[in-house]
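Recall the central idea of this unit: under ordinary conditions, the amino acid sequence of a chain determines the structure it adopts. In this exercise we apply that idea directly, starting from the sequence alone.
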Amino acid sequence: MTTITPGDHPDLKLVNPKAAAIDIGSTMHMAAVNPEASDTPVRPFGTFTQDLHDMADWLKACGVTSIAMESTGVYWIPAFEILEARGFEVVLVNARYAKNVLNRKTDVSDAGWLRQLHSYGLLRGSFRPDAEIATLRAYTRQRERLIEYAAAHIQHMQKALMEMNLQLHHVVSDITGATGMRIIRAIVAGERDPEILAGFRNVRCHASAEVIKAALVGNDRDEHVFALTQSLELYDFYHAKIEDCDRKLEAAVAALTIKAQGNIPPLPKARVKRKQAGTPSFDVRAALHGILGTDLTQIHGLGPSLALKLVAECGTDLRAWKSAKHFTSWLCLAPGNKISGGKLLSSRTRRSSSRAAALLRLAATTIGRSDTTWGAFYRRLSARIGKQKAVTATARKIAVLFYNAIRFGITYRDPGAAAYEERHRGRVLANLQRRAKTLGFALAPLPDSEAVS
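Accordingly, the structure predicted from this sequence is:
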């Protein structure tokens, strides 16, 4: 393995001589320290807990203070947590920023190269939230998985109903709603009379009792009823686990450090009064307001559940990003700047697997149908450059509002779609007047009688 010495590169300054690096693997971790600190500067360690403590002891004996680790997947988490608890400064490095290994690529050369880069301060650590946010994030992600599992059994129930030729999903908008679940539970309990089943219709259901009765005449074979029964039981089981997860979420939110300074303003009125589907059972909006001092749901597109997920992914202290531009760049929502020879080659946004970016894109899709400033912005861009780019641009706008709300406590007031359209019209007129002036002309408004609406 080729090493870098300050004499080879006089412009490089040794920033951290006590740096170490670990190349994380599923069954083995390769740790590297300064060659002057040990006769064997690169050593392999297993992945058992005792092996991780042995690695920490060896790093401590070598005088290491800062450690960079490169990993994919989740193999890095146990090592990261143990080393951090032992007092080391640990940074997780994106493999994309340290992939150019000199000579042959092996675990030994990977670890040594990573240590050299880290000792010269050439590596940037990935964002890692504090312990409170990491706990909250684990619960929110677990809740999302449980919802996905429950959704799969909704499809299984619908398939069983179709096999019985019970066209319930054609007469109710959601089979897991009030009407649908009453009917399904009655069928599982042994009820087969369509008239009695239609009597479980909720008063708010659009379909009449006669239509529901006609849709519930089917073939009640035992194997189909058995499949429906098991799917319903599994659906109820996962919803019970979601309730347990909500209790943990509520405790995790209550344990967050309050970031608001001074007197917290009163909680404003909710923009949407009805409870959104899939929202945790506790009052998420009030809980987040008490911690942050601002109501994130005042930002159009952010409901209580989505706001909680964003806080779980990004944290309550966004000082890790110097500005909103840094934040949107981290989310891969900002345009790129691939430049060579003074020419812009590409401005496409980078691909990202960020959950926070996916949530913001979801909010952008929702806000595109609203009569708001960013709804009008989305529709204008969608017509001009396509929906995909419009979603990205609108998601970036929402990300800036989210950053300013948490970082600086700025409260957003939407002026509405009409105000946005008027500002856009003013910009278009100003551009036309400027272009006309450069060509030696002047624009003049038409008389009201001749104007085209």
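The first strand starts at residue 19 and ends at 23.
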